Amino acid sequence: MNLLLPILAVLIGFGISYFLYEKFVIINFLLAFSGSFLLSVTVLEFLPGIYNSGVDSIGVFILGGILLQIMLEYMSGGAEHGHLHISKENTNFPWVLFVSLCIHAFLEGVPIHGNDHLLYAVIIHKVPIAIIISSFLFNTNLSKAKVVFFLLIFGIMTPFGSFVQANTTLFDDIGIYLNAIVIGIFLHVSTTILFESSKDHKFNIYKFGIIVLGIFLALIL
Ligand SMILES: [Zn+2]
Ligand SMILES: [Zn+2]
Q: Where, by residue number, does the polypeptide cross the bilayer (predicted)?
């Protein structure tokens, strides 16, 4: 079930983009909510757990995660937090975007096994991203087959990360470091979403309310 939810998130995103892409407002609110909820769950639960593990200099890996996410966003143009900058005329498969999104999605699957709140946070974070990516790709000159391939592989990367964590011994020794890296990724992605969600930094009472709601829900979970 937990493996299916992230795939469902991508499908829901695809469905929304297909049927109601006009609703830009919804996507922006969804993005703001997902950013604040992801940040809150990370700070309230995920981060303290890592520091309580007692592993020396684990904070270095959190900083490493932030740097890794910055590099991934150079490759993806910021698709992980909600916008895309590749040419719509492009008919070649966007490999750089694809690889960078897949690395990001795989890594965020690693800690969600056995952590339900984080699982919800990642799923909520995925829906607006999937809407934006699929609606963007379907509006390029890429063939439908290429777009479907892109979304399919992207959709299974997060459950694949969880699966490897849960069913192999591959990450047994490095799991704690991977988790710290993912914290860095989440910190960067979620704060960037919140930063970019306020257009020209004008105060928007609705958006502020949505952000507070995300924090509140993470607190009472
Ligand atoms: Zn950006
Ligand atoms: Zn993500």
A: 25-47, 54-72, 92-111, 118-139, 145-164, 176-197, 203-220
139: CA distance to ligand 2 center in Å? 22
Q: Which ligand is nearest to the CA of 187?
A: 2
- The DSSP letter of residue 31 is H
Q: How far is the CA of 15 from the centre of ligand 1 (A)?
A: 24
Alpha carbons 76 and 60: distance in angstroms, whole number: 24
By residue count, the chain amounts to 221
The alpha carbon of 102 and the centre of ligand 2 are apart by a number of angstroms equal to: 10
Ligand nearest to the CA of 191: 1
With contact defined as beta carbons under 8 Å apart, do 212 and 35 qualify? no
Ion ligand 1 neighbours (CB, 5 A) are 78
Residue 208 C-alpha to ligand 2 middle, in angstroms?
A: 22
Residue with tokens 């809150």: 40
Neighbouring C-beta atoms of residue 51, cutoff 10 Å: 13
